[in-house]
Design brief:
alpha/beta; seven-stranded mixed sheet; four-stranded antiparallel sheet
Length: 399
C-alpha cells in the first residue's frame, strides 16, 4: 500500500508535451527585461468603443448563460461578414458556433471527428496545439513539411506548399487535413489556385478539412484572403475557424468561432457543450454590436501593413535576411549570415542569446516542428506600438 501522503501516479495522456515555447520565451523576456517580440499579442489597446459595448451589455444584465451555440446576434453578424467577404452563406443557427477562442475550436473540432487510429495530416511548421489535440483524440498525426526555398547564398528565401508530399499523405485512413492561412509562423498565404489544388486532392476521399484562418484580416499588398468558405467543394467538408482576439486586439478575451456545414456542426456541438458549454455572455453581446461596423476589419490590413513595412525597413539595415511576410503579424528572418559567432547556434539557443544578451525576444521556427528542424530562421511579432518596435530595432541594429 502506498503511504497516504504520496500522490498516485497515472499514465500521462501527453507524455511528450512540456511547456510551450511561447510561455518559455515570454518568461525569459520578463526575467531579463527584454522587449518581447516573441509571443503573438499586441501591446496596444483595443478600441474603447468595443469595451464600451461590453460594459453596456453587462449593465443591460446580459450576464447569465447564453445559448450554447452563442448569442444569436453575434452568430448572425458572423454569417453576414462571411457572406460579404467570401460569398458563402452559413446558417447562423445550424452552422456557426461561438467558441472560447480559436484553440478551443480546434481541439473541439478534432475531438468531434477524429477517432482512435484515424490519421490527421498537418503541415509543419505548425501551430503547437495541433499535435496534442490529435493525440487526445487518439488520432495519428501525419506531418508533411513546407518546402524551404533557398537563395544562391544558401539562406532561406521562402516557403512553398509541399504538394507531392501532401498528395502522398492522403489516403483511406485520412480523417482530417489541417491547413492554416495566413500561416503561423511563416506568414505564407494560400492562393485560390492552392484551394483548387487541395480540392482536387480530396474530392474523391472522405477526408475533412480544418482551416485555421485566425489571421484572415491580415493579408497585405492589396492581396485577398482566400478562405475555404469561398470554395464550395472545400466549404462542404470544412471546419472554418477564426478569432476575435486576433482581429480586435483582445487576445486575452479568448473568443472565436467555428463555421461548418450542419452535419459537421452537429458533431462539433456534441463535444462543445461538454467542453466549455458556452462563452462569456457580455463579450458576445459587445462583439455583436461592434461587428455591425465593418470598418475595423476592413481597415486592418492597412493598419498592420504599416507596422510590417516600418519593421522591415529598419531590419533591412541589419544582417538578418528578411523572408516575405504577405500575411499574419509575424516577420521571419534568417540569421545564419550574421557576422557574429552566435550565428552558428541552433535556433533555440540563438533566440535565448538574443533575449538575454541583446534584449529582444523571438521564437525559433524549429519549435513549430515535432522534431526540431533547423533552418536558421526565427520569428518576430510586429503587432506592437511603434515605440516598442523602434526600441527593439535599435537593439537589433547592433548585430
Amino acid at each position: 500500500m502506498n503511504p497516504p501522503n504520496i500522490t498516485p501516479g497515472f499514465p500521462s495522456r501527453l507524455p511528450h508535451v512540456g511547456t510551450t515555447v511561447f510561455t518559455v520565451m515570454s518568461a525569459l523576456a520578463a526575467e531579463h527585461e527584454a522587449i518581447n517580440l516573441g509571443q503573438g499579442f499586441p501591446d496596444f489597446p483595443c478600441d474603447r468603443q468595443l469595451i464600451a459595448s461590453v460594459n453596456e451589455a453587462m449593465l443591460a444584465d446580459h450576464n447569465q448563460y447564453p445559448s450554447m451555440l452563442g448569442v444569436k446576434e453575434l452568430r448572425s453578424g458572423i454569417a453576414h461578414k462571411i457572406q460579404q467577404l467570401y460569398g458563402h452563406q452559413y446558417d447562423p443557427d445550424s452552422e456557426i458556433t461561438i467558441t472560447a477562442g480559436a484553440t478551443q475550436g480546434i481541439l473541439t473540432a478534432i475531438l468531434a471527428c477524429v477517432s482512435p487510429g484515424d490519421e490527421v495530416v498537418i503541415i509543419e511548421p505548425a501551430y503547437d496545439s495541433y499535435r496534442p489535440a490529435i493525440a487526445l483524440a487518439g488520432g495519428k498525426a501525419i506531418a508533411v513539411s513546407l518546402q524551404v526555398v533557398r537563395d544562391e547564398q544558401g539562406q532561406v528565401a521562402s516557403y512553398e506548399i509541399p504538394w507531392e508530399a501532401l498528395a502522398n499523405a492522403i489516403h483511406s485512413k485520412t480523417r482530417l487535413i489541417i491547413m492554416n492561412t495566413p500561416h503561423n509562423p511563416t506568414g505564407m498565404v494560400w492562393q485560390r489556385v492552392d484551394l483548387d489544388r487541395l480540392a482536387d486532392l480530396v474530392q474523391d476521399t472522405s477526408a475533412l478539412i480544418l482551416s485555421d484562418e485566425v489571421y484572415e484580416h491580415m493579408v497585405y499588398d492589396g492581396a485577398s484572403h482566400h478562405s475555404v468558405a469561398s470554395h464550395p467543394l472545400l466549404a462542404a467538408r470544412s471546419f472554418l475557424i477564426s478569432s476575435f482576439g486576433k482581429t480586435y486586439h483582445v487576445t486575452g478575451w479568448k473568443i472565436g468561432y467555428v463555421a461548418a456545414p450542419p452535419a459537421l456542426t452537429k458533431e462539433f456541438r456534441k463535444v462543445h457543450q461538454f467542453n466549455v458549454f458556452t462563452v462569456n455572455t457580455p463579450m458576445q453581446h459587445g462583439f455583436a454590436s461592434y461587428l455591425a461596423d465593418a470598418s475595423h476589419y476592413l481597415n486592418l490590413p492597412a493598419f498592420y501593413q504599416a507596422k510590417r513595412d516600418f519593421f522591415r525597413a529598419s531590419l533591412a539595415n541589419t544582417g538578418f535576411k528578411l523572408l516575405p511576410s504577405p500575411g499574419t503579424y509575424f516577420q521571419c528572418v534568417d540569421y545564419s549570415a550574421l557576422n557574429i559567432p552566435q550565428a552558428k547556434l541552433n535556433e533555440a539557443a540563438f533566440c535565448k542569446w538574443l533575449t538575454t544578451q541583446i534584449g529582444v525576444a523571438a521564437i525559433p521556427v524549429s519549435a513549430f516542428y515535432h522534431q526540431a528542424t533547423e533552418s536558421g530562421v526565427l520569428r518576430f511579432c510586429f503587432a506592437k506600438q511603434e515605440q516598442t518596435l523602434s526600441n527593439a530595432l535599435q537593439r537589433l541594429q547592433s548585430l
